[in-house]
Amino acid sequence: MRILLVGGGGREHALAWKLRQSAQCDELFAAPGNGGIESVAECLPIGATEIAALVQFARQEAVDLIVCGPESPLIAGLANVCQEWGIPCFGPLASGARLEGSKAFAKSLMAEAGVPTAAFAVFEDPAAAGDYLRQHFASQRCVVKADGEAMGKGVFVCETLTDALDAVEFLMVQQGQGEAGKRIVIEDRLHGPEVSFMGFTDGERFLPLPPSRDYKRAFEGDRGPNTGGMGCVAPVSDATPELLEQALERCTLPILRALDSQGTRYRGALYTGLLVHDSLPHTLEYNCRFGDPETQALMPLMQGDLVELTAACATESLEGMSLEPPRQSAVCVVLASGGYPGDYRRGLPIEGLERAQQEPGVLIFHAGTKRMNGSFVTAGGRVLNVVGLGSSIAEARERAYRAVEQIHFEGMHYRADIGAGL
Ligand code: GLY
Predict the structure, then answer these.
(1) What is the domain count for the chain?
(2) Residue 216 shares a structural domain with residue 262
């Protein structure tokens, strides 16, 4: 098969690596790819959201399957255009990607489908949002979310009424996240461990990947600003088979059925962000793609053939397919640029990569790198994902950090507590 992978981060490097292992992968293109993806795919000078150019390339080059990594192209309708041209696409139509593209839509669909989730209200007027907060959250914590796509920067977990009013002011009045914050969702705050529950779906069947957990804060001990993810572990042992069965039956399948009853058959990756509150899984959010950095930990654990699975989702033929449980554990440590998630420098030489790659049980997926004169330089906030694999989280963690110690670039920072105590 000739496959076009859309995206250029660490998640896409892990997907490219796994697609390449399939006997069915004859040709792999990546748009735009990155420094690391170049070693397994032909990288194209086409951005991930240049839908017309992506589809034109796919048609010209007789691409058999498009696999989309990030959410933005899907929210913007990549799968719809693929459908018009008869190109199978791993990734939902825009009407399905709306689960991630509009928090208000996702919450109302959850309410309709009876999915356990935090109580919520939707606002388009900042004064009404302020009144509601003063009435309901004067002495209680809440979460304020931008409705639209805000690249992980639209969620405010508020400790006080002042925090919540500031979030409303930032999103709705100052329009700090542009259009995304014109409408907001205010939610009760639930408490409990979070689990990333992802899998493959053809709209009817769902094949789950092992449960994973990401580390969103920049600094150790879950301090500092939110990031795109500083690390990840999989599988997580507190997500028991019983809990995952409940998550499937109460959170994941009902939302697929609710979409189907609206005329949208969802094909692709579905990520249910779970929070276990009072021992019951609740949906925090849905994402219309795999998680980053969860994918970097999960692809090396996955026993199946990624080409077969993604093609089966795209063509609604998952029936009869299954995924074996993982035989190992994985710990992924993200190496970030100095200053990330704020401003950071690019173009800094990366040293020690080859040495690190030789460590046993280690894989390195590039997120923000570029090849320059035969060497790698930094080209993003999150630069590298160092994945350790082992018979336990402890062993995987030891391997990951041994490799991390070999790598250096100016300003590099990472969390030293990924997988600690598990
Ligand atoms: N790791 C969280 C996400 O991908 O949204």
Answers:
(1) 4
(2) yes
pLDDT, one tens digit per residue, over 228-273 is 899 999 999 999 999 999 999 999 999 999 999 999 999 999 999 9
Q: Does 77 map to a domain? A: yes
Same domain, 178 and 195: no
CATH number, position 392: 3.90.600.10
Distance 388 CA to ligand 1 centre (A): 19
Question: Could you tell me if 219 and 256 lie in one domain?
Answer: yes
* Cα–Cα dist 203/217, whole Å: 33
Is pTM beyond 0.85? Reply is yes
Between the CA of 134 and the centroid of ligand 1 the distance, in Å, is 31
What are the φ/ψ torsions at residue 402 (nearest 5 degrees)?
A: -65, -40
Residue 255 alpha carbon to ligand 1 centre in Å: 19
**Structural contact between residues 239 and 192, judged by C-beta atoms closer than 8 angstroms:** no
- Closest ligand 1 atom to residue 290 Cα is 4
What is the number of the ligand 1 atom nearest to the C-alpha of 293?
1
What one-character DSSP code corresponds to residue 38? G
| 106 is a domain residue | no
Residue 81 located in a structural domain: yes
* Largest distance between two CA atoms of the chain: 61
Nearest CA to ligand 1 atom 3: 291
